[in-house]
Amino acid sequence: MLHNGQPLGTQQLSEDRFAREFTDRHGDISRFCHTSGKWFLFNGNHWETDGTKRVNYMVREIIRELSAGATSFNKSSVINGVEKMLQSQPTHSVESSYWDAHTYLLGTPNGTVDLKTGDLRPACPKDAITKVTACAPEEGSPATWLRFLDEATGHDPEMVRYLQQICGYALTGDTKEHALFFVHGHGGNGKSVFLNTVAGILADEASRVFRRQFQLGYATIS
Q1: What residues pair up with 33 in beta bridges, in sequence order?
Q2: pLDDT at 6 exceeding the cut of 70
Q3: Is 102 exposed, middle or buried, given 0-12, 13-18 or 19+ CB atoms closer than 10 A?
Q4: DSSP annotation of 188
Q5: Strand 30-33 vs strand 93-94: parallel, antiparallel, or unpaired?
Q6: What is the rounded CA–CA span in Å between residue 88 and residue 33?
Q7: pLDDT for residue 220
């Protein structure tokens, strides 16, 4: 049996050896979040939870390869032991604060947008992005959207600019303004269309709360 061109005997194998091999191969794309108790894998665009136990399978493949199928190693106790060991390995071990911590980086289907410059670049594992918008940036002017804003605001360019500013602020993780925006007015004037469109674009970045969550005595807002 060869590993990196060198002979590797079964006497040199151990759970620690398998764990180090896993980190060498997959350290850039795998993280274990101790807050959620879940593995995350980088899919080339963003990080997502390992809902199908791919990490366990990846560990098993490494054990099978290095041990040349030796039955003493190809057991669930060894596989699970290696995975457990990896969870505390510094390369893989993170908490929830690790994710989506960059205030001005936005994940999109086509890559990551630097919101300070407007530049779109390839997604990178180090960005630790788990949330992605529903659509990617495109060149050109959104004529239909701008026409809707113009009509919904009663042809008020300052209000249109303000609504666009709110949308831009919502894309960031910046909370320095400590602002809570209310959209109100008579029925049928575009409020729901505006909010549903923005929420649909933001996708993972948007969440819905209910009226009762703002009422006195309601314990938490999630």
Answers
A1: 38, 94
A2: no
A3: middle
A4: T
A5: parallel
A6: 10
A7: 58
